[in-house]
């Protein structure tokens, strides 16, 4: 162990980074027809001799990213001046301080823009901790003392469903056989599914071509966006099923488009194509609605979670039997600490976790959470897959690597969150070189 230092966090640097994905309809769905994938990006700088920085972000889809950046900046006073050693030894202290700021907490509490900002900063702290430990984050978590992991979790509001003692028992049991699973993970990777073929704005030719390519690339599950027009969805699902054949799982995603009764009718209408799950069939806040849909559309599974605010709502979804597949998001809740709680809740209830990763950088982050879950918590990848979308990875210093439909386990230290400096310079809004040139061209065309 390195000797303690007097190093401090010296700056919280923020960037409003946006990519023009709406122009090719990448990411398009029934609720979000024209997303510009964006990152409210944060860098924790320190005066430590090792030169390490902590990188984190939260994902948005364009306008409003400036609001998200402002929320991150509102947390600066809680971070600058902290001991680097203390922060990396106990990121939970930072998490508790950020969540506990009563005046900012009032804006949630523990939900929305402010909570996502907390997640970005907390994730940046974990990135810094993993770099200083010289380990990828999944390995830092998997090899950590179970009692220390429990100390990182806020159990307030959870103990009627999960106590610290229960969490510790799950983690202690999860460590059995971890070395063998680590070796297998490094050799084989973690299974993935792809949404890259199924964006709602793609025509049938592109959908079919990309679905065929996905199967050839080793994916055993693809996902289609649905919910705008039933006749279109029937046609697209028929084309996708014909392209991939009966042995490939086909998931569908409504992105919160429907009322409960409508979700039931629409899902039943698509049942002939053997959908594996229906994702976000209704409001992400409607726990009882999800439960009603689940009862009505079985054996089609119900999946949700990418827009769930916090661990408390996940707890209630599990308690109510409202979902078959839990889709946590690395950047919507309060960072790694809260996602540890969500993983443990899912493990206790026996519900598989298939993270949401449809967004810039989310693939890079969630792979670490799933790999920790596999190695040191649930010990399985059965019915577990990580979403994969095939764009924007080239902007990261340690991008995801796919091999035969599997995520290769990251080996570089950190949380895989660091973006290339040239990408930050080019796509910072509105003054980056891409956006400045784009704005100038639009003005010229309007003249």
Write structural notes for this entry.
By secondary structure, the chain is α/β, with parallel strands linked by helices. It folds into 2 domains: 9-136, 2-Layer Sandwich (Enolase-like, domain 1); 174-422, TIM Barrel (Alpha-Beta Barrel). Helix content is 44%, strand content 13%. It has helices at 65-73, 76-79, 84-89, 91-100, 102-105, 112-133, 137-142, 146-151, 164-174, 178-188, 204-216, 230-244, 260-269, 287-297, 311-319, 336-349, 362-376, 421-427, 433-446; strands spanning 9-18, 38-46, 54-60, 190-194, 221-225, 249-253, 275-279, 301-304, 325-326, 386-388, 402-403, 406-407. The radius of gyration is 21 Å and the shape is globular. It starts with 8 loop residues before the first strand and ends with a helix. Keywords: Lyase, Magnesium, Metal-binding. It holds the Pfam family MR_MLE_C. Residues 204-300 form the Mandelate racemase/muconate lactonizing enzyme C-terminal domain. It catalyses: L-fuconate = 2-dehydro-3-deoxy-L-fuconate + H2O.
| Arithmetic mean of pLDDT | 96
Please tell me the total number of domains: 2
> Under CATH, the topology of the largest domain is which?
TIM Barrel
Largest sheet: 5 strands, parallel
Shape label? globular
Helical/strand content category:
alpha/beta
Percentage of residues in DSSP E strands: 5-15%
Helix fraction, binned, reads 40-55%
Q: Nearest-angstrom radius of gyration?
A: 21 Å
Strand order of the largest sheet: 5-6-7-8-9
Give the C-level CATH assignment of the largest domain.
Alpha Beta
DSSP helical segment count: 19
Protein name: L-fuconate dehydratase
Organism: Streptomyces griseoruber
GO molecular function, one term: magnesium ion binding
Catalytic activity: L-fuconate = 2-dehydro-3-deoxy-L-fuconate + H2O
């Amino acid at each position: 162990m390195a000797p303690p230092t007097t190093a401090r966090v010296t700056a919280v640097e923020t960037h409003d980074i946006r990519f023009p994905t709406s122009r090719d309809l990448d990411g398009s769905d029934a609720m979000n027809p024209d997303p510009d994938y964006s990152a409210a990006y944060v860098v924790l700088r320190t005066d430590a001799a090792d030169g390490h920085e902590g990188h984190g972000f939260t994902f948005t889809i364009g306008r409003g990213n400036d609001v998200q950046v402002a929320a991150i900046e509102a947390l600066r006073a809680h971070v600058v001046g902290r001991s680097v050693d203390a922060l990396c030894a106990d990121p939970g202290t930072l998490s508790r301080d950020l969540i506990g700021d009563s005046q900012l907490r009032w804006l949630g509490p523990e939900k929305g823009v402010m909570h996502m900002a907390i997640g970005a900063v907390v994730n940046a702290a974990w990135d810094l901790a993993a770099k200083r430990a010289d380990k990828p984050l999944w390995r830092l978590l998997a090899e950590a003392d179970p009692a220390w992991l429990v100390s990182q979790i806020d159990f307030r509001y959870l103990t009627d469903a999960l106590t610290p003692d229960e969490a510790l028992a799950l983690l202690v049991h999860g460590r059995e056989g971890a070395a063998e699973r680590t070796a297998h993970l490094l050799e084989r990777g973690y299974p993935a599914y792809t949404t890259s073929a199924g964006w709602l704005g793609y025509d049938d030719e592109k959908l079919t071509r990309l679905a065929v390519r996905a199967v050839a690339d080793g994916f055993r599950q693809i996902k289609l966006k649905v919910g705008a027009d039933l006749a279109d969805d029937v046609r697209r699902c028929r084309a996708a099923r014909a392209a991939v054949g009966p042995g490939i799982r086909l998931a569908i995603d409504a992105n919160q488009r429907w009322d409960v009764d409508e979700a039931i009718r629409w899902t039943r209408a698509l049942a002939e194509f053997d959908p594996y799950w229906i994702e976000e069939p209704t409001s992400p806040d409607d726990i009882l609605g999800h439960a009603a849909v689940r009862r009505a559309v079985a054996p089609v599974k119900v999946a949700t979670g990418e827009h769930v605010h916090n661990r408390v709502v996940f707890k209630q979804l599990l308690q109510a039997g409202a979902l078959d597949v839990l889709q946590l998001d690395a950047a919507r809740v309060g960072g790694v600490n809260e996602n540890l709680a969500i993983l443990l809740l899912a493990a206790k209830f026996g519900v598989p976790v298939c993270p949401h990763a449809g967004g810039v950088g989310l693939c890079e982050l969630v792979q670490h959470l799933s790999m920790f879950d596999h190695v040191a918590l649930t010990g399985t990848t059965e019915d577990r897959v990580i979403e994969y979308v095939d764009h924007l990875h080239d902007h990261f210093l340690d991008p995801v690597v796919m091999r035969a439909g599997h995520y290769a386990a990251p080996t570089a230290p950190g949380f895989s969150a660091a973006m290339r400096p040239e990408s930050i310079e080019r796509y910072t809004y509105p003054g980056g070189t891409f956006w400045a040139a784009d704005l100038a061209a639009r003005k010229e065309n309007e003249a």
